Amino acid sequence: LRILDSKNPAMREMLDAAPVLTSHLGDESRSHLTFICNALDLAGVAYVINPRLVRGLDYYARTVFEWVTDRLGAQGTVCAGGRYDGLVEQLGGRPVPAVGFAMGLERLIALLEEVNPGAATTASDLYLVLVGDAAAREGLVLAEQLRDAMPQLEIVCNCGGGSLKAQFKRADRSGARFALVLGDSEIEAGTVALKPLRSDDSQVVVARESVIGILKERIAG
After folding, report:
1. Phi and psi dihedrals of 200, rounded to 5?
2. pLDDT digit of tens for each residue in the chain (221 aa)?
3. Which residue(s) pair with 81 in the sheet?
4. Domains recognised in the chain with CATH numbers
5. Nearest 5°: phi and psi at 66?
6. What is the SS3 assignment for the chain?
7. How far is it, in rounded angstroms, from Cα 212 to Cα 206?
8. Closest C-alpha among 86, 32, 37, 29 to residue 57
9. What is the pTM for the complete model shown?
10. Contact 219, 153 (CB under 8 A)
């Protein structure tokens, strides 16, 4: 399959006429691709399915990906990787689902400076505290909705789990003015809890569909 990644112009015509990989997926692979695309759609992440995309390592399985930008000229690839489901087993271990990637640190820094020059010195406005697996999934979607509605705000979404107390410590260290708490009870009720971190004001519980308007009043001004 590496021929699909050939940079030889003489191969271009033959590659353009080659069968498209996504037209020849098995049922399991197609189901997996649909699941990934649905998750990206739900999170509001823009993507393009590239049937010619291949990676150079033999232990990739199922999904490979690249994160690209048009903000850095010709050096558009910032991150690339894929699934490593068979790697641990090849090394003598048991089968372990896995995913990994390589990221260009210099390109990432350049992109950050291009998109948000003041990010390194700006305290967060809002920290999402997410309690439970369902909240971790819902929180990613909510964070993207908030960023889309209020792009001027610095919004941090907790990743990596942790107890409620541990997450509030992270929220405090981030310098955030508010914490937005989402757990199983909030998901069931369709609410979120908004807690001020830099004042003695009380925590309030608001309907999830109202949270953007309330945050615009309290934070965005």
Report:
1. -95, 10
2. 677 777 788 887 888 888 888 888 999 999 999 999 998 888 888 899 988 888 777 788 889 999 988 888 777 889 999 999 989 999 999 989 999 999 988 888 888 888 767 665 567 899 999 999 899 889 989 999 999 999 888 899 998 788 999 999 999 998 999 999 999 999 999 999 999 999 989 999 999 999 999 998 888 65
3. 65, 101
4. 2-114 (3.30.930.10), 122-220 (3.40.50.800)
5. -135, 140
6. CHHHHCCCHHHHHHHHCCCCHHHCCCHHHHHHHHHHHHHHHHHCCCCCCCCCCCCCCCCCEEEEEEEECCCCCCCCEEEEEEECCCHHHHCCCCCCCCEEEEECHHHHHHHHHHHCCCHHHCCCCEEEEECCHHHHHHHHHHHHHHHHHCCCCCEEECCCCCCHHHHHHHHHHCCCCEEEEECHHHHHHCEEEEEECCCCCCCEEEEHHHHHHHHHHHHHC
7. 10
8. 86
9. 0.60
10. yes
Q: Within a 10 A sphere around the Cβ of 125, how many other Cβ atoms?
A: 21
